[in-house]
Design brief:
This protein is mainly α. It is built from four helices and no strands. It has helices at about 15-30, 35-40, 45-60, 65-100. Helix 1 packs across helix 3 and helix 2 (about 35-40) crosses helix 3 (about 45-60). The radius of gyration is 22 Å and the shape is elongated.
């Protein structure tokens, strides 16, 4: 098998959703082990195991956060961080203007 679907070759690569689905399906069919699939696609076993585990969660076969829940949580955390930064800026501005008006 060749490394189809790889977006770039680096220590922290990202892969297309189609590539991940294909890798998971090969594992789920039972033809090959996770290690064999990882070696065939030039991946780490941990990455393939994570994809298989997430596919099981998404299918309701395993407990955990689904992919959409993970995306929503990440978005909410980003928004929360941005809002905290906004509040911090407003606090500093308030303190500045209080000292300037005295």
């Amino acid at each position: 098998m060749e490394s189809v679907g790889k977006e770039e070759a680096c220590p922290r690569c990202s892969f297309t959703p189609e590539f991940k689905v294909e890798s998971v399906e090969v594992c789920r069919r039972g033809d090959r082990s996770v290690g064999q699939v990882a070696k065939g696609f030039d991946l780490t076993e941990a990455a393939v195991r994570d994809w298989v585990r997430q596919a099981q969660v998404d299918a309701g076969e395993r407990e955990g956060l689904t992919s959409s829940e993970r995306e929503e949580l990440a978005a909410l955390r980003r928004e929360n961080r941005r809002l905290r930064e906004d509040v911090d800026i407003l606090k500093r501005a308030t303190a500045f203007f209080v000292t300037e008006t005295r």
